[in-house]
Amino acid sequence: MSRLVSASESVVITGIGMITPAGNNTTSSWAAVCDGTTRAAPDARLASSPVTLSCAVPDFDPVALLGSGARRMDRFTQFAVAAAQEAVEDSRHLPGFGVNLRAGVVMGTAFGGVGTWEEQAQRLAARGSRAVHPLTVPMGIGNSAASAIAARFGLHGPVFAVTTACAAGTTALGAAADALRWGQCDVALAGGADAAVTPVVASAFDKIGALSRRLDHPGSASRPFDRQRDGFVLGEGAAVLVLERESDARARGAVPYARVLGHASTCDAYHLTSPEPSGRFAALAVREALDRAGVTAGEVGYVNAHATGTPEGDAVEARVISEVFGASVMVSSTKGVTGHMMGAAGAVEAAFSALAVHHGIVPPTANLDEPDPAAAPLNLVREKAQHVGVELAVSNSFGFGGHNSTVLLGKP
After folding, report:
1. Which of 34, 55, 267, 306 is catalytic?
2. Residue 99: what pLDDT?
3. Active-site residue flag, 340
4. 407: helix, coil or strand?
5. Residues contacting residue 361 through CB under 8 Å, at least 6 positions apart
6. Is 156 a residue of the active site?
């Protein structure tokens, strides 16, 4: 039976794993984001779609990374397990893995195994029901990444998936931190994964005007907060973070990257795709995350913005940040490099925020040439990374359906 360990007990990040368009591990992803090198390029997988560019994970060989069992996984699960493998190795000497009844997994996803569903629908249409793969359901369902991670490491605690659209990775991180504070587990792998660079998803997003149409200039297509932005670029990948209570981590000699100090989620309850125009519920999520940590807005040094490059969404978030934090806090969106990784975005950006706190480096926003008037009052980090100490960082994530999720990270 679980019990509240301590509402004030610090939860820390002791391991990070990433598979992103910026690189196949944490080191290369972080380096590319700090360099501001955009990853948008034409994608042969989208040849039948109106928008043919994406931010794709480069040179990903799942069998080489994970063994032959990777063939029984959707691409989003492959990303998740590979990221989890790196995170576990990075955390060093996690106790009890292999037979751990007290270890949990919380993974966020927006689309789950959409690639599997699309492929099998094509088989069904072309060759009939006998051609449908017998593992379609376990490969395609949204919990498959979480369960595959648990199976790989023998984790028998609470294992589940959350799906709050593009806020899912951040929601998962908050849920895992709560599970640790409530004593439901002693260690948790938390993150997000998506592999939604598919013809149907690209065509559907294009149908509602969400994607950039800079097909002749893909390198400049993903441009958060820029006056000339015209939509986001589809990305893919995963991030997994190892979370522990700080007392446990210190006892085993682990060196944390950052503390998870507070998180909060709200819902606009307004529209299927558009944010509530005033941003008041997104601002509420930010304020509640700060309040739960006992932190004032003026103490925060960096905000990793959700900013995807859509005209409406970026403008609303700029107003939220300005209203809550004023003009002094440093702000950037790493989606200028990675594109929008859907349900993985929040986990990846929380990882980047933890690294910003750990290394004292704030990454820039790629392709931010001329700030939108709504964002102009902000202290936007452009062109070059800023080498400056960051004690506290906020990472925002927002998703279709009005989901708002914020996490506050701090120095350990």
Report:
1. 306
2. 58
3. yes
4. strand
5. 34, 355, 385, 386, 387, 388
6. no
pLDDT at position 9: 79
Indicate the helix (H) or strand (E) that contains 136.
helix 136-140
pTM above 0.90, yes or no: yes
pLDDT digits (tens, 9 = 90+) for 146-178: 999 999 999 999 999 999 999 999 999 999 999
Residue at 237 is within a domain: yes
Question: What CATH number corresponds to the domain at position 173?
Answer: 3.40.47.10
Residue 11: other Cβ atoms inside 10 A = 25
Do residue 121 and residue 211 come from a single domain? yes
Total count of domains within the chain: 2
CB atoms within 10 A of CB 97: 15
Q: Residues in the chain with pLDDT < 70?
A: 1-8, 93-101
Is residue 256 in some structural domain? no
pLDDT number for residue 102: 87
Give me the pLDDT at residue 331, please.
98
**Active site (annotated) includes residue 166:** yes
The first and second tokens of residue 11, run together, are 């939860």
Q: Which of 263, 340, 358, 403 is catalytic?
A: 340
Catalytic residue among 166, 267, 358, 403: 166
Dihedral sign for Cα atoms in the order 13, 19, 25, 28: negative
Same domain, 175 and 36: yes
pLDDT at residue 101, rounded to an integer: 67
List the domain range (segments joined by +) for residue 388.
261-410
In a domain, 74, yes or no: yes
Task: Indicate whether 371 and 389 sit together in one domain.
Answer: yes
